[in-house]
Structures are given as C-alpha cells and as structure tokens.
Amino acid sequence: MPEIAVLGNGRVGGNLAAALTRAGHAVTVAGRAPGAAADAARTAQIVVNATPGAGSLDRLVALRGELRGKILVDVSNATLDGPDGLPADLIYPGSSLAEHLQDALPETRVVKTLNTMLFPVMTAPDTLTQAPDAFLSGEDPQAKQIVRELLVSLGWRPEWVTDLGGIRTARATEAAILFVPHVIRSSGFTPFALSIAR
After folding, report:
1. Element of type H or E holding 183
2. Residue 149: how many other CB atoms lie within 10 Å
3. Rounded to the nearest 5 degrees, what angle is found at the Cα of 13, between the Cα atoms of 45 and 169?
4. In angstroms, rounded to a whole number, what is the distance separating the alpha carbons of residues 132 and 20?
5. Bridge partners, residue 134, by sequence
6. Is residue 195's pLDDT more than 80?
7. d(CA 8, CA 12)
8. What is the number of alpha carbons within 13 Å of residue 178 lying toward its C-beta?
9. Does the pLDDT at position 52 exceed 80?
10. How many CA atoms lie within 13 A of 99 on its CB side?
11. CATH number at residue 25
C-alpha cells in the first residue's frame, strides 16, 4: 500500500488519519512543528490536504518540491467565515482551491474529493440514512482511480463515488459549501452529505 501523509491534524485531518490507519494504510500526520509537513510529504506517495482552505495554497506551494510526482488529495474548501465562524463566502469565486493548487503545482496530480459533507461522513458514509455521494475532480485518470480505491477502503461503496471530470469541476463541489451553514443553522451539526438523487 502507498504511504499516506495527512497535512493538518484538526478534526478533519485527525479523523481521516485514524480511519486510514484502521483501514491498514501507513499514515503519517504532519502537525504544526516547523518542517513537519515537508518531512511527511517527502516520504509519502499520497498527500492529503486537510489544512484550513484559506491558507492551503500558500502552505502547499511551499512544498512544491516535496509534492512533485505525488497525488495530492484535496478535501479542503477555501472560504471566508462569517461572524458565527461558519462559511459565508468563497475565496475563489468562479474558480476553486483545487484549480489554484493544480495551476501552482503542475507536477502534482491534484484530486478533489470529500468536500461536500460534514467531516464525520468522510470516514463513515454508511451511518447516514440515505446513500451519500463522494465526487472526484482531477486531470489524471490513474490518480482518480487510486483515490477511488482509497475511498472504498474508508467504507465508500463504488457506486457512491462519482467522477465529475477534470479539475475545473471542483468549482462546483467547492461552491456547495455555501449550503453547509444554512443546513447547520436549520438542523444542527448532525452528520450529512450532499448527494444526487437518482
């Protein structure tokens, strides 16, 4: 199995790292210590960006050398928060964090996924009462297939994973974050995911 580095050890990163480890993957979590992200990324084949989206671009561009040739799984949304701390607007309207990452890191294979749900669903999709969807956006078909297999190892059924196409499609899933604060205000922090009814 490929080695995985998770950048970010908050709720999202910690949850993903624990679940990937339980699934049998070799996982390194990069905390905030100087050089920790570079050390983790250098030895991994897959790097998961679970850092706060507002600062992700600067953080990851600084790791250009370490990310060269790697798969970068971007699960973050770049938003401006409102007074209540919930997402209020997009930092990259008409674009996406994933597109900016791919433009800035042309030798890295960026795959956007797992950014249309509350973080507990990322690793426990079968706990919802209805089938959720996880979406894939990226330019490299092989990278997306590897990420698809990673999701299956986390409990996602193959039919729940939808390949939307190239990295440009990430602007659609990133824009979906604007649903989240309204759903939370309406229903609380009960786990949910956006899905397509078929």
Report:
1. helix 180-187
2. 14
3. 70
4. 19
5. 161
6. yes
7. 8
8. 11
9. yes
10. 17
11. 3.40.50.720
Tokens of 40: 């983790």
In eight-state DSSP terms, residue 35 is T
Per-residue tokens: 94: 């008409």
Residue 67 lies in a domain: yes
Residue 141, number of CB atoms within 10 A of its CB: 11
pLDDT bracket for residue 101 (50, 70, 90): very high
Domain that residue 28 falls in: 3-187
In a domain, 109, yes or no: yes
Q: What are the helix (H) ranges across 31-169?
A: 36-43, 53-61, 64-67, 97-104, 119-123, 141-153
Q: Evaluate whether residue 70 is within a structural domain.
A: yes
Measure CA 20 to chain center.
13
Please give the backbone phi and psi of residue 110, each rounded to the nearest 5 degrees, phi first: -90, 130
Q: Total structural domains in the chain? A: 1
Q: What percent of the chain has pLDDT over 70?
A: 100
Residues in the chain: 198
For the question of whether the overall pTM of this predicted structure is more than 0.90, the answer is yes
What's the rounded mean pLDDT across residues 71-88? 95
**Residue 197 belongs to some domain of the structure:** no
Contact of 152 with 161, CB cutoff 8 Å: yes
CA distance 71 to 8: 16
- Report the alpha-carbon distance of residue 181 to residue 179 in Å, rounded: 6
What is the C-alpha radius of gyration for the chain, rounded to an integer number of angstroms? 15
